[in-house]
Amino acid sequence: MYIIVGLGNPGKQYENTRHNIGFATIERIAEQENIHVLEKKHKAIIGKGYIAGQKCILAKPQTFMNLSGESVRELVDYYKVDDTAELIVIADDVSLDVGQIRVRKKGSAGGHNGLKNIIAHLGHDGFTRIKMGVGEKPKGYDLADYVLGHFSKEERAAMDEAAGRAADAVRMIITQDADVAMNLYNRKVER
Fold first, then answer.
1. Cα distance between the two ends of the chain
2. Please, are residues 56 and 2 in contact by the beta-carbon 8 Å criterion?
3. C-alpha 184, offset from chain centre
4. Angle at which helices 178-185 and 153-175 pack, to 10 degrees?
5. Which residues sit opposite 117 in a β-bridge?
6. Residues 125, 142: Cα–Cα separation, whole Å
7. Fewest CB atoms less than 10 Å from the CB: which of 84, 124, 153, 173?
8. Consecutive H or E run containing 77
9. How far apart are CA 56 and CA 41, in angstroms?
10. Confidence band for 163, pLDDT divided at 50, 70 and 90
11. Phi, psi (5° rounding) for residue 36?
C-alpha cells in the first residue's frame, strides 16, 4: 500500500496558491485514477483506491502546512506502511522554476516548513518526495507572501502541466521505482 500526500493549507483563501500545489496535484491524481478524496480521517481529507493495481491512500492534510507531520504520522501508523518505501509526499519548491518537478528519495527540508515537520514526526528524511517548482520569490518579497500568492495565467498553465507529470511520476514510482522516475522526470522542461 502507498500513501501519497499532497501538502497545502485548508480553506478557500489558500486555493490555487503556490503553497497548495500539493493539494492540486492530489486532485489531479484522484481525477486520473477515479479516486474520491472526501473522507475526513487522520487530520486529513483522504481517498482510497488503486493506482496500477496497488492499493493507495491519497491525502490532503488539514493541519495547515507547518503541522503536516501530525497527519502524515497518523496515516503511516494507522495503515502500517513502510515510510521509507511506501510514502510519497508532494510539495511546492521555490528553488525550482515554475513548472519543473524533481523526484527525490530522501533529503533535507530545504527550508520548507511542511517537509521539516514531516521529518520531525517521522524521525528521518528518507521518504520519497516530488518537489513542484513554483519559482524563486522576487527580490524584496516576503517568502510567506510569495508562496501564499496566486499563479499568473501563464504560470497556472505550466503548473497544470507539471501536476500531470507529477501524477505520471507517482504512477511510475509505484509500478517501477523512484530511481526510474528520477531518471525520466528530473530533466528541465523547456518553456
1. 36
2. yes
3. 18
4. 150
5. none
6. 27
7. 153
8. helix 68-79
9. 15
10. very high
11. -95, 115
Distance CA 19, CA 92 (A): 6
| pLDDT reported for residue 30 | 98
Q: Which of the residues are catalytic?
A: 19
Residue whose C-alpha cell reads 524533481 in the numeric block = 102
Q: How long, in residues, is the chain?
A: 191
Rounded distance between C-alpha atoms, residue 81 and residue 92, angstroms: 24
- Cα separation values, 146 from 42, 78, 85, 132, 169, Å: 29, 35, 32, 15, 26
pLDDT of 184 strictly over 70: yes
Q: How far apart are CA 128 and CA 172, in angstroms?
A: 12
The candidate with the shortest Cα–Cα distance to 59, out of 27, 33, 19, is: 27
- Residue matched to cell numbers 501538502: 7
**Alpha-carbon distance values, 130 to 6, 12, 38, 87, 118 (Å):** 9, 24, 23, 11, 14
pTM: 0.96
| CA pair distance 9, 63, nearest whole angstrom | 7
d(CA 176, CA 24): 24
CA angle 154, 158, 162 (to 5 degrees): 165
Q: How far apart are CA 58 and CA 23, in angstroms?
A: 10
